[in-house]
Amino acid sequence: MVEKWFAGAVVADGSGEDPWRGDVCVSDGVITAIGRAPSDAEVIDLHGMVLTPGLIDAHVHLGLSSPIRAQFGFQLSIAEIAADIFANAGRALDAGFTTVRDTGGLDGGVVEVIAKGKVRGPRVISCGPVQCQTGGHGYYGAAWEPTEMWETHHTPGLASLSLMSGNADELRRNVRESFRRGATFVKLCVTGGVVGGHDRLDDTQFTVDEIAVAVEEAAARGTYVTVHAHNNAGIRNAVRAGVRCVEHGTDIDEPTARLMREHDVALVPTFAVVDQLMDVESMDLDPATRDRIAGVRTRMAAALGVSRRAGLRIGLGSDLIGPDQRRRGEELRLRAELESPMQALVSATSVNADILGIGETVGTIRAGMHADMVAWQRDPLQDARVFADPDMAALVVRAGRIEKGETS
Ligand SMILES: [Zn+2]
């Protein structure tokens, strides 16, 4: 068993404790000790750097790595869609992200080739297609298209954006179908969204009883449901039905935050995508998107404050879509502006790991954990722009393997 010591860095271990100095010993992909590297040890010298756990993005869409309208309008070959997905998977590692939770659109085939090491990328936990109600958020077909045509837009093995359900029985079938294709949790859209032209942000989607069907199927599989939700009515429906996590949470008010707290429901706010969506031309989006996005950022920032005061577990997700998913760490920079760099780091590491159900093995630097780590050239806790700059992530280690940086 080869031991390697990552030595000399200041360590911000993801727990939120003050950074400390110590060398980290890694063997067989796992952190086996923290202390002083022995003089005869194999050492990777990290003097002058700050070592953090590998970052986790709890809300990604690797399956949406091409220009959106071109991808769903049959203008791209399968080869090109695959090339775009694989490129973005590699970029996540380069930006310091060693784990991502794909919240809709990625087929299990991609998860498998990355896990096999045939394609460079982070650890991927995926829900497969999003579950949406007929014509709800997650449907990007034209209004004239027969509902049955929607799944012809999917690219089996690569990307399948959503499965549409008209009632509880169809939803049960579609959740089971997603598990069959490799999903390990369930994502349901319970309100309208920003992207897509068939609904409004303040719509609610799926009834409490329907959401409860997805929760029941997830529980039978030993996993959980998270929901895409912007408005309070939709979030309250979902919490009452037993979901474990809310994505976006744009309009969360105090009573809703209290209800979430009572049911220990986590929140994953998503700021980076809001900036990204303002640029509708380069994103290849419907110009109406700009009207829908107006005001979302301010409201989401207010909801973050309300949720923090209510004591919710608050993770972090970029929700980046489209071809250029290079600056995933932008989400930490934005969160650092609203809170602090340390809070952003904790959300992106130990809290996200907990939300993903993998907090026992990733998200902190301590003995017994998987060796997922990033060495930053400058201190991101002093200047959170460092998190957003892939060039600052000098060394990226996933499960003990150096994925970026010096390999000696
Ligand atoms: Zn999303």
Could you explain how this protein is built, in words?
This protein has helices at residues 68-72, 78-94, 108-115, 168-180, 208-220, 232-241, 254-262, 272-278, 288-293, 296-310, 330-338, 341-356, 385-388; strands at 3-7, 10-11, 20-21, 23-27, 30-35, 43-45, 50-53, 55-60, 97-102, 105-106, 123-126, 130-133, 159-160, 162-165, 186-189, 225-229, 245-248, 266-268, 373-376, 393-398, 401-404. It contains 13 helices and 21 strands. A 6-stranded mixed β-sheet has the order 3-2-7-19-20-21, with no helix packed on it. The radius of gyration is 21 Å and the shape is globular. The mean pLDDT is 95. It folds into 2 domains: 3-53 and 362-404, Urease, subunit C, domain 1 (Roll), CATH 2.30.40.10; 57-356, TIM Barrel. The protein binds zinc ion.
Record the SSE blueprint.
Layout: E1 3-7, E2 10-11, E3 20-21, E4 23-27, E5 30-35, E6 43-45, E7 50-53, E8 55-60, H1 68-72, H2 78-94, E9 97-102, E10 105-106, H3 108-115, E11 123-126, E12 130-133, E13 159-160, E14 162-165, H4 168-180, E15 186-189, H5 208-220, E16 225-229, H6 232-241, E17 245-248, H7 254-262, E18 266-268, H8 272-278, H9 288-293, H10 296-310, H11 330-338, H12 341-356, E19 373-376, H13 385-388, E20 393-398, E21 401-404
Parallel strand pairs: 1-6, 2-7, 8-9, 9-11, 12-14, 15-16, 16-17, 17-18
Antiparallel strand pairs: 1-4, 2-3, 4-5, 7-19, 10-13, 19-20, 20-21
Helix pairs in contact: 4-5, 5-6, 11-12
Bound molecules: zinc ion (ZN).
Zinc ion is lined by residues 59, 61, 103, 319.
